[in-house]
Specification:
Shape of chain A: globular
CATH superfamily of the largest domain in chain B: ACT domain
Protein name (chain A): Peptide deformylase
Largest sheet of chain A: 6 strands, antiparallel
Helix content of chain B: 25-40%
Number of domains of chain A: 1
Helix content of chain A: 10-25%
Catalytic activity (chain A): N-terminal N-formyl-L-methionyl-[peptide] + H2O = N-terminal L-methionyl-[peptide] + formate
GO molecular function, one term (chain A): metal ion binding
Radius of gyration of chain B: 19 Å
Distance between the termini of chain B: 36 Å
CATH architecture of the largest domain in chain B: 2-Layer Sandwich
Order of helices and strands of chain B: EHEEHEEHEEHE
CATH class of chain A: Alpha Beta
Strand order of the largest sheet of chain B: 2-3-1-4
Structural class of chain B: alpha+beta
Largest interface: A-B, 22 and 24 residues
CATH topology of chain A: Peptide Deformylase
CATH superfamily of chain A: Peptide deformylase
Oligomer: heterodimer
Number of helices of chain B: 4
Number of strands of chain B: 8
Enzyme class (chain A): hydrolase
Cofactor (chain A): Fe(2+)
Shape of chain B: globular
Radius of gyration of chain A: 15 Å
Order of helices and strands of chain A: HEEEEEHE
Structural class of chain A: alpha+beta
Distance between the termini of chain A: 29 Å
CATH architecture of chain A: Alpha-Beta Complex
Amino acid sequence: MTSPIAWDGPEGNVLPVVTAPATVLSTVGDEVDPADPAVVQLAADLVATMRVSPGCVGLAAPQVGVGVQLFAVDVTGHAKAATTHGTFVLCNAKVIEASRWKAGREGCMSVPDLTGDVKRAGRVVVVATLPGTGEEVTVTTDAFEARALQHEIDHCAGKLFLDRVAGAHAIYQRKVYL
Amino acid sequence: MHELAITVIGPDRTGIVADVAEALAGVGANLTDSTMTRLRGHFTMTLICTGPSVVDARQALSALSGVVIEVREVSPESDKSDKGEPYVVSVHGADRLGIVAAVTRVVAAAGGNITDLSTRLTGALYVLIAEVDLPAGAADELAERLAVAAAELGVEVTLRRAESEIL
């Protein structure tokens, strides 16, 4: 069954991913107009870039150098995923409910050499709009998809997982490259 | 009963922890608190142990080649309680001279005691994470002062309460 929020927009272009300490990663993103054709194109580009990046389950606009509130997620097939909505892109997303807090190890394409232990909600309700139609949606999810959403919403707010790590010994040199 | 503080630093190699621990066990040293890690390829170990004299511990470790060893007698811990409210400071940004000095000075000026700290330099990115015990009510002003210091350094900083669950 296709998810009601699944991405079915145009083919996008693969964009270069920027890495910390790029300023755009620490800048609060502007809200976007989901009906703007440039936003739909950027949404497509985020999906295309995510798909060619091994192990990538989410990519936010600031990671391709654009400081706006737009991100793509796809945790399909991930071992830690429970609920999944396939590939989707959200504009101006906000967490309105969060519960079941749990620590987990996170990495980020924009911080390629480090991972860190971050506490995130294991269940979230997120409100957002879909690029193109501008339809308002409420996404309720859990487990790994909930973590991915929170990670990407943080990117849109200019935050990295480094801003949320649990303590002085909760960051690690990344050893596994996919 | 002697209480000793020991540091061991040298090139990392397989078995170095076992060699240190075995040498100390051989002279009756009971390892209490210890930490070890690898920093840019250098093995580093800091530990507190009880049992042997400084001379015996130093002699036991002298068989290890290629490492720098420091052994000194310390006074037993007088007050075990950590005072203050626990917070975590995260700093990340482009590497430049003086980030640790500036950030920790601001924390100290607010009466904050740094209880743990680590830094990593990966490529151009410098990351500092510190755990801090703060006096009650000091967090808001410290957050403002850290923001000013971070802006001057051109780095990002966050201060947040360290969470702990009692189960």
